[in-house]
Amino acid sequence: DLIVPLSLFLFFTIDKRAGYLLASIGLGINLAYLLNTYSRGSWLAITVAFLVLCYLLIKNQSIRRHVNSRIKQRKLPLALAISIVVLFFVIPGPDTSIRTDDKFTMNSSIHIRLKSYANAAAAFADSPAAGLGHGAFMLGYRKYMFANAPLTETTESLYLVNLHNDFLQDFVELGIVGGVFFLVFYLWLLLLAAKNTFNKSVSISLYSMGILLALIAFGVHALVSFPFHRPTSAMEFWVLAGIMLGLDGKKYTFSNKLAKSANIILAVCIPLLLVYSVYYYSHYFKNSQDVLRLKDQLIEQDCVAALNTATQLDYKLDYYTKIFVPLAYNYCYKTDPQESFTRMNEIITYDPDSSIARITRGLLLLDMGRPQQAAQDFLNVAEVLPHRPTAYVGLGHAALNMGKTPLAVEMYQKALSLDEGNLVAQDMLQQLEVTKQVK
């Protein structure tokens, strides 16, 4: 969404042959990728950007003449870009057909997003001033998943990580002040870029037009996805914002002293940023490799190795560690009960609504002979995921351990009403029926 408009206008702007050839290759590869991803958000974004481009070319005669002359002069590089797009679709490759299972059909996806937006309204209403906290959406949103529109697609290990609407998510995370601030900043950037598309300088006008179309595409996609919350695309947005401010700022003059101070600050900050980026992404890469190894160890049922790997993972780093670390302990808690209990306490302290951690700790508490405390963990799961049978099976176990057999039967029956094929609930009810007959 960002690179296609920028590549196109660099193609029109750069004078050196090597430069505009590179821009044409970038345009072709990125456009081919964009079309081939089956991302409806990207298709919508680039369509809106194209319509705006047509409008701007109609309104700005000097730019239209410049673009026409460049197209006539650079037919072969432009043909190269088009050829790359065609080749991506002609050359045989892996199956890229859209998945057709119920979970990923278009209607289902839209349905999930609409329900998510409805529940986000409840989250915002609960904390309109401060919001859930920056970056806290995945954890803070869980208690609202059934607030206005039941999000029954969620499970113990499947959560909504992003809202699929960046502007709305900003309001939910940052509250009214942060949400309005970012929205106003984005709209101001658009106005700044739009104003400079009619700059007397052809180069500034072309650069501004490319940035304007990139920002428009980015914003349109942000209405149905979360580009602002992805580190790399978010960084590209802020780089574009800086370039746009720089283009607009050419009309200002600064003292030599101020300019030197700014250069010194940049000379210090940029290397620090690069060092931090290298550290962060190397750490992220290693963690991702460890998660893949953990998945393989769980598939191989190697619990000793899996728990060893889970201990080394940074649980807070990303979605996958938040899911697979408690999953490993859930599957292997009997291998090392004490370490599993300690780890689940740490996870629940950080994420009180982690259903996998709650279920695992509940099972450990049952093994320790502490059914009342176990019941509290299972009750939390039932509140967060009222449509899932797992919590009610756990509550049945806890009731049974407390000698409350009628309540246990009620809980197992509740689990079966949610999932007729739940084998644990079926087995427990059969055992209780046999015990009753024997008595």
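[next item in queue]
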Amino acid sequence: MGSKQNIKLAVDAVVFGYKPQNSLSILLIKRKYEPYQNHWALPGGFVLDEESLEQAVQRELEEETGAKVNYLEQLYTFGVPGRDPRGRIVSTAYFGLVRPEAYEIIASTDAEDVNWFDINSLPDLAFDHSEIIELAKKRLQGKLKYEPIGFELLDEAFAFSDLENLYSTVLEKTIDRRNFRKKILSYELLIETKEKVANRPGRPASMYKFDKARYDLLKEKGMLFEI
């Protein structure tokens, strides 16, 4: 006996941004059309017949926000009946990491506006997007402890204090600075540059870069990154 289905497939994107000394932020769009017209929501939309999920989420991000995100990872599929008033719509969510200043965000297609919001001061959101963001934050916090994805949120050259602040902000807890520095440096994944931190109190501190090529090589050999 054949089954009867009337299901549509969509994608949503939780894009995290971070600026040194600031909180984690989320990229949101204001919806131009119903349902939830003029409500803030995650960028996203329906998957086209000829697209993969990854192609769809990248397209929706570029169309609605102008952002092209290098780091995107599949998060979870949300399919509770009634989650969307337009009908039976299943959405596969992704989360991404960017430096906000790297993009000029521009609202387009079905987005009335686009902006960054502090993750601790989000507006009322459309659909089940609050639930999606909460799950994405937990995934980010967990993954930050065993993979150095946090460097995607920092400038190419950064002060060690910026890295400390990033971990403290994302994990939402105070870290032991001495042990954290010792642990990070033990992996030998940071390249000290000739640059010094400017416009900050105290003795000038060194700037570092993340050695991704070395990390990829060590990962292939079975190195375990753990914070």
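[queue empty]
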